Structure formats: C-alpha cells, structure tokens
C-alpha cells in the first residue's frame, strides 16, 4: 500500500496554498471573499488544479471549519495548522511536512497565497518551466520591482524552509540565495487583498 501511495505522487510538483491567516486588517475571512463567481481561495485552488503533474495541499487555520466546508468538492489535501497564530512560517512548515508525508521523494514545491486574485495556472506552469530551463534552486514571481509568491523551491531548500520561525516567509530564502533564484513575470502579482479598500478596488 505504501508503494501505491508514493507512486501516486511520483515526479509531481507539490503546490501548497497558504490560507491560514485571520485577515485581521480586513475584519472578515479574505479566503471567502466573493470573486470571479467564486471566492478568492476557490479561484486560487481552481487555477492550481489545472497544472499538469501536480498535487495540491491547502493549509487552513483561522476560521478553518467554515473554510474547509467550502472546499469539500475539491480534490485537494486539506491540512489544519494549529499554530497558525504564530505566523506565516508555521503554515509553510506544516505544508512542507504534509507534502513530504505524501511524497518523501518530492523534488520541488510551489508556495502560493490565497489573496492574489490574478494568479493563474499559466503562472504556476511558467514557474515549473523556468525551473527546468534554468536549473536554479528557486524560481519566484516578479512584480513591482520585487520577487515573491507564487515561488518554487527545489528540495535542497526544504530543510531551511522547515526551520523558518514566526513571521518569516519565503522571501528570507530568496534574499539569502538570490544568486540561485530565477524569476518569471507576474504583472498583477502585486495586487493582493488586505483591506476592504483593496477588495473594493478589485470588484468595482
């Protein structure tokens, strides 16, 4: 049975969607904001599910029960992060640990957030293609004179990702290993939803 389980995920890219935050600046769960005849989180999941040869993990935390109820129709692994209040790092660690449980031999993983409304399967696929083309250990999305999520990491960085603490995120490793970082353009990647004003700009 173990062989069958591992074989199911063999040679596939893990995609971890971080959706555990409390949306404190917004005052309501951003994961469930209506967008594109769906919600922000469902939109991100739908795009990720279009990526060939990948498997998807969604990390929940705050408001987990109502959020997970919304995801019952999706073929994804849902993983609750009981330490979500400690910061972003705990969700990265939780997602990576679940990924390695499902596929101990996974070669690469993409981390994405749930509040970039313009993310598409094309962005995810470009990250994977650029990773294979350049051989770089990190491939990030470029926007607004910076690089960030979604971001792909080769397995050689998994241990350092697992050592992240508190509010530390993927950018810590991108900055540390910038010479080993490639990037792909994501023109609207800077648009994310943190406040009611951000959301109103998106829908009106």
UniProtKB/TrEMBL annotation:
One of its GO terms (molecular function) is nucleotidyltransferase activity. Residues 16-177 form the MobA-like NTP transferase domain. Gene3D superfamilies: Spore Coat Polysaccharide Biosynthesis Protein SpsA, Chain A. InterPro entries: MobA-like_NTP_Trfase, Nucleotide-diphossugar_trans. Pfam families: NTP_transf_3. This is Uncharacterized MobA-related protein-like protein. It comes from Flavobacterium johnsoniae (strain ATCC 17061 / DSM 2064 / JCM 8514 / BCRC 14874 / CCUG 350202 / NBRC 14942 / NCIMB 11054 / UW101).
């Amino acid at each position: 049975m173990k062989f069958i389980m591992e074989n199911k995920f063999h040679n596939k890219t893990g995609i971890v969607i971080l959706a555990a935050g409390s949306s404190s600046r917004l005052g309501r769960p951003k994961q469930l904001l209506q967008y594109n005849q769906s919600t922000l989180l469902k939109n991100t999941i739908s795009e990720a599910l279009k990526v060939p040869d990948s498997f998807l993990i969604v990390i929940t935390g705050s408001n987990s029960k109502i959020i997970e109820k919304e995801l019952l129709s999706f073929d994804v692994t849902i993983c609750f992060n009981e330490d979500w209040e400690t910061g972003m790092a705990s969700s990265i660690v939780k997602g990576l640990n679940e990924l390695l449980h499902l596929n101990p031999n996974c070669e690469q993983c993409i981390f994405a957030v749930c509040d970039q409304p313009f993310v598409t399967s094309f962005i995810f696929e470009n990250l994977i293609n650029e990773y294979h083309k350049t051989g770089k250990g990190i491939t990030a999305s470029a926007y607004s004179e910076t690089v960030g999520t979604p971001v792909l990491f080769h397995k050689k960085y998994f241990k350092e990702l697992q050592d992240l603490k508190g509010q530390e995120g993927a950018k810590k490793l991108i900055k540390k290993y910038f010479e080993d970082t490639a990037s792909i353009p994501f023109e609207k990647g800077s648009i994310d939803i943190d406040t009611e004003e951000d959301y109103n700009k998106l829908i009106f």
